[in-house]
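Hello Y.,

Per our agreement to keep a running log of every chain we model this quarter, I'm adding this entry. I've kept the format consistent with earlier entries: sequence first, then predicted structure.
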Amino acid sequence: MATEVHNLQELRRSVSLANKVFVQRDYTEGTMCQFQTKFPPELESRIEKHLFEETIKTLNSYYIEAEKVGGRSYLEGCLACATAYIIFLCMETRYEKILKKISAYIEEQNVKIYAPRGLLITDPIERGMRVVSFC
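Predicted structure for the entry above:
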């Protein structure tokens, strides 16, 4: 695993900006965080369309899950107010846990699918949640 991570880091360093492909946020259903599933023509020779779409749809489902408001979200908010937000020094929010899950999913996809094809996905959190970049 350590050599795979090292190889991903080397691959990330060697990529130039000219080879990057950006998948923009999709605002057709409001401001909820989701990305366009339209397959970019720049990736046609590098990855299969169904793999790309599966990755983006999975990311979108994770972001939808993260933004759902339920009882736990309300409880976290009430605890935050009651403790002057000190509670967040002791615990992770549901949203933070799902963001970690997304990062782990992206890392897994890079190792299993994208790195062998000479591509890498950049976590949207690194780009301000504006784009998913493939390089």
